[in-house]
């Protein structure tokens, strides 16, 4: 992407900034730094890190190439953004959150996670599941059928792996899974859309909960890599 122009750019996504697409401040006035897609009513519209913003922008590379008369490949465009974005106002400001706080914010952005059980032959069996609740960055709740293969796996071996990612940032966890069947917790965690899978409602005997609790974490967030025990 060609950033070597005198035209102002959004200080979040690098989009050429015109009056028609300027963002708005909390009082409704026009913001001079950010576009409306990144900043509205005094707040950023997405809680991205810089690397997430780059991955998000790459979705629109064909449109950018057509408008600018360029023919950049995704690799070339990403390299240009990696060089330019650290100089934009939003990304020059230090993110004071800890890595675990960033991970918790990342998990909040994810509707789905991938969890792996260990089968009878010792092989991991990964499946994607809907996240129904999370505490911090390493406690995740899911709902599933009591008759599912993964429930059988966890009954015999409660060790598990779980990962989640969003626009290039990701966290991989190792930990354990608890299969929860008590009525009080199942009722507390019940969501209306579950009825399509469990017609008997919160007391449907086929409805169980999985509570994953991580004990080790590997982080890749905004270009920062770290591995630690929890």
Key features of this structure:
single chain; 230 residues; alpha+beta; Pnp Oxidase, Chain A; 2 domains; eight-stranded antiparallel sheet; two-stranded antiparallel ribbon; 7 helices; 12 strands; 25% helix; 34% strand; elongated
Describe the structure.
The structure is a single chain. With 230 residues, the protein is of the alpha+beta class. The chain folds into two domains: 19-93, no CATH class; 101-229, Pnp Oxidase, Chain A (Roll), CATH 2.30.110. Helices cover 25% and strands 34% of the residues. It has seven helices and twelve strands. Strands 5, 6, 7, 8, 9, 10, 11 and 12 form an eight-stranded antiparallel sheet that branches. The protein has a two-stranded antiparallel sheet with strand order 1-2. The chain has a two-stranded antiparallel ribbon with strand order 3-4. Strand 1 and strand 2 (30-35) form a beta hairpin. Helix 1 runs antiparallel to helix 3 (74-84). The protein is elongated, with a radius of gyration of 22 Å. The relative contact order is 0.13.
